[in-house]
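User: Study the chain.
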Amino acid sequence: MTNIWTIIQYFILGLVQGVTEPIPISSSGHIMIFRQLFGIETPGLSFEIFVNFASLLAILIIFREDIIRLIKNGWLYITKKDEAAKSDFRFIIYLVVATIPVGVIGVLFGDAIAELINANAMNVVGVTLLITAAAVWMIRNLRGKKNDGDLTRKDAIIVGFAQAIAVTPGISRSGATIVASMLVGMRQETALRFSFLLYIPVSLGTSILEIPNIIQDPTFSTLWIPYVVAFITAFIASYFALKWFMNVMAKGNLRYFSYYCIVVGLLVIFFL
């Protein structure tokens, strides 16, 4: 029988995942930090993928209107060549283009990344958190002008490569894609939407591919209650964290995330 402390630990891990996934401070890096603090060893990426799916569900709910509009207008343009729907169709194409780099990186280096995470390479997390801090600091005052219909294939490729770099623990996925989006001139709202809609195919594809490993994971079979607790917690926390972050983006207060990553990165380097 699972003891209460184990459930509390996984509740905290789910909370950490949920809070840190939408904001630019690296959920993977924070999960590694708390796993190290708790002495939890989970082979492979099953747990990370499992709680990431909870965050995905929250993002799907928040962006459901955008998703429905894109699907509707994308289909309308394909079937009827409706010019009014062309902008949304192109947006979908750019999301597909931006997804390709991380897919290639995942296929080529997925095992190496899993080994890095399992090795609890805290020195790597500390350094990459500092890199995340520097990247977020660069765009703290940027105010782009590009809307959804102004994006180009080049923009999509640049953001796609930024997302591919973020497979490294400690490099924030949302941070990397938002930084890249704003560097190519997107408005805050457009950068936020492109970043999180881009998260959907990557997270969904990874979750589907990982289903057999999750089912066969011995840790899941013995700790399914803590896993479920972490999943529910991650879902709720992701929903409210993203809602909060959308307000932060609108006000342009990104520098505080940079300060935070500097502090945590240095603490990890010197004490973990």
The chain has twelve helices and no strands.
